Amino acid sequence: MEVKIGVHNATRELVLESAQSPEEIESTVRAALADTDGLLDLADERGRRLLVRTEHLTYVEIGEPVERRVGFGTV
Hints:
- The protein is α+β, with helices and mostly antiparallel strands.
- The chain has one helix and five strands.
- The chain has one domain: SH3 type barrels.
- InterPro entries: DUF3107 (IPR021456).
- It comes from Jiangella asiatica.
- This is DUF3107 domain-containing protein.
């Protein structure tokens, strides 16, 4: 699952591939937003962790990665 995270005052979004389901990611984001500590903690497929303070979040996009097509043929 591809997760894109927008952060205040950052020109680029954070992107990670997660093995979690969309529902699991959504519940993690909602719990982080509701928590007084305010820290979003996600792990990617390689086991790396991404920690973002929720006060800096602008958006979280959860979706399937789009595969890029190469070539000129149509399928």
